[in-house]
Amino acid sequence: MLDDMNTIAAFFDADFGEYDEDLEVLQAYGRRTGGPLLELGCGTGRALIPLARAGFKLTGVDISPEMLRIAAGKVKAAGLGRKVALIQGDYADTPETGQFEFAFTLMNTFLHLLTQADQLRALGHWRNLLAPDGTLLIDVFHPNVQELAALDGRVEWDKRWTNPETGATIMKLLARTVDLAEQVVHVTHIYDEVSVDGQMRRTLAAFDLRYISRFEAELLLDRAGFDLEAVFGDWQLGPFESDSDRLILVARRRG
Q1: So where are the chain's domains?
Q2: What are the pLDDT digits (tens) for 211-232?
Q3: What band does 5 get if pLDDT is binned at 50, 70 and 90?
Q4: Residue 6 dihedral angles phi and psi, to the nearest 5°
Q5: Residue 121 — φ and ψ, nearest 5°?
Q6: Whether the Cβ atoms of residue 253 and residue 130 lie closer than 8 Å to each other
Q7: What's the CATH number for 2-142+212-253?
Q8: What's residue 1's pLDDT?
Q9: Is residue 187's pLDDT more than 80?
Q10: How many other C-beta atoms are found inside a 10 Å radius of the C-beta of residue 145?
């Protein structure tokens, strides 16, 4: 998975960099808890940088050196070196110590934990990194059974954009299959990059996501020593319902 995350890093900001639906809620929880904040799987700093600009002190952890290289460049360019610490490593067990008031993992990052043992190990570690009564937020997609069953491996169009530095056109496609018994979606990102002289280069990045249901997630949090505070179905903090796109869980460290 590490190699594929490094591969995606080159396209990540153009693909997801403008997504900001979660920032207002993250800032609200940051203000409520007071910080410091911890982002688990911070990628290229999509959320990290605006939160630091808003005045919060943060630590970002990511397994991908290439993602963190890009994030570090943004931190330096924004003059936020005193606000942001970046740590390269597995978010399930790095960093070793901490007293964070608010930790969060966004955009399905939690779903890279592919077994229950891995999920509980990560949650237990994150609990230990939180201050007493500290808050954890997890954001994942809400699995829709009909949509999952339709994932048959066919190549789907996603989006296109232009690389502002090279002028190349980049087309992103997806291919996905699902193992319903194991609750695992096998994902392949396909990036076709067409240069201004018409040459095409294809880049593939494959990874797995183990999706979870609401009550499965609640049981995991309980076993890991968290008390559930809220469950939302979107970033407007609407109720979690059958047709919700997101499953956003907020829990507090117990004891």
Answers
A1: 2-142+212-253, 145-210
A2: 999 999 999 999 999 999 999 9
A3: confident
A4: -65, -35
A5: -60, -45
A6: yes
A7: 3.40.50.150
A8: 63
A9: yes
A10: 8
Query: What share of the chain has pLDDT > 90, as a percent?
Result: 91
pLDDT tens-digit profile of 106-149?
999 999 999 999 999 999 999 999 999 999 999 999 999 999 99
Angle at 116 between CA 210 and CA 204, to 5 degrees: 30
Between CA 91 and CA 136 the distance in angstroms is: 14
d(CA 203, CA 10): 10
Q: Which two tokens stand for residue 150?
A: 């339709």
- Residues 193 and 200 sit within 8 Å (Cβ to Cβ): yes
pLDDT band at 4 (very low <50, low <70, confident <90, very high): low
Amino acid at 34: G
Contact 22, 47 (CB under 8 A): yes
Distance, CA of 24 to CA of 28 (rounded, Å): 6
- The third-level CATH classification (topology) of the domain covering 145-210 is N-terminal domain of TfIIb (2.20.25)
Three-state DSSP string of the chain: CHHHHHHHHHHHHHHHCCCCCCHHHHHHHHHHHCCCEEEECCCCCCCHHHHHHCCCCEEEEECCHHHHHHHHHHHHHCCCCCCEEEEECCCCCCCCCCCEEEEEECCCHHHHCCCHHHHHHHHHHHHHHEEEEEEEEEEEECCCHHHHHCCEEEEEEEEEEECCCCCCEEEEEEEEEEECCCCEEEEEEEEEEECCCCCEEEEEEEEEEECCCHHHHHHHHHHCCEEEEEEECCCCCCECCCCCCEEEEEEEECC
Angle at 247 between CA 139 and CA 22, to 5 degrees: 45
